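[retry 2/3] N-succinyldiaminopimelate aminotransferase: previous attempt timed out, resubmitting with same input.
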Amino acid sequence: MNPLLARLQPYPFERLRQLFAGVTPPADLRAISLGIGEPKHPTPAFIKEALTAGLGALAAYPATAGEPRLRAAFTDWLKTRYDLTLDPATQVLPVNGSREALFALAQTVIDPSAGFKPVVVSPNPFYQIYEGAALLSGADVYYAPSVAARNFAVDWDSVPADVWARTQLVFVCSPGNPTGAVMPLDEWQKLFDLSDRHGFVIASDECYSEIYFRDEPPLGGLEAAARLGRHDFKNLISLTSLSKRSNVPGLRSGFVAGDAGIIKSFLLYRTYHGSAMSGTVAAASIAAWGDEAHVVDNRAQYRAKFAAVTPLLEQVLDVRLPDASFYLWAGIPAQWDGDDAAFARALYAQYNVTVLPGSYLARDAQGSNPGRGRIRMALVAETEECLEAARRIVDFVRKAPR
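[retry 2/3] N-succinyldiaminopimelate aminotransferase: success.
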């Protein structure tokens, strides 16, 4: 067996199952889960219709590079969303959701024969695929903390110079999971300068880019590069997905875009990896990327939901409206002494509400776990269910102090 598999840690949801083992929540309260970030809003009917209309494509092997109409749908969307002009033949590729692409990209760009132990820099807390992708590529992971005092911006300055010298890949998540923070232009400039100096690739995970609460849409990595005159997108790959934008997590559809040289190598890897997108999925994807009305409606639903739920939770938790994404990243009351796992277990046991301990989404690094004392709540269900969960949490904190 691959010895690198032994370096992988249990996924947060497996740890959550272990945490809840032996607990029987009250039977008179229906279960409400805010633990998993799986979109629950209905899939738009026109996407389903496009999917079934494309069933004829099941009779043919799909091309790994995707058909021209699909790649054009990606570049058309990038033009509409970010005012960017990319070559559909060389600067974009379809992927089966951003998760598999994040993993595969690391296997493509990490060079274990470089003469030193390569490093992948990850935000902390983080989406666990970043860690698994790095470890299975043979690299070490350096965890750069997100700082609460800076609206959970990643502290890139905390990464030592000798770590940057060995870095081959940096994962950026903006808007962030779990914090919802959006990386500003000056932080992008900092990373681009470091990339130019050390030659590492930047993977910008942007799957939450269309769920935001301010008037200004979140800045994207490619958009930041263009604003700074980096029109070749050197050493930059952006990854996005339809899952959250269009409420189709089961479609497993997204795309990557950026540096044409990296795209060329990634296509070669994917050709052998066997990860071509089905023509049936491509048909639905073309329809989804070409329509913005359903995205505006989806965003309005989240905005109304967060506007209703956040003020309730602000009464008892350290929480505020994020920049973007569909998570609330909340600090638990002081009497719990930062024990987010104990808080989550007691809440489940007494009120049948599931939240994810923040420490499960981060690692102990540089002397602390930046997720400790926080919980992640995914407001993905309908508004009334999220409101009911919020009311129970308020009741729990007020009536059941530790």
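[retry 2/3] N-succinyldiaminopimelate aminotransferase: The chain has two domains: 3-42+294-399, 45-291.
[retry 2/3] clearing retry counter.
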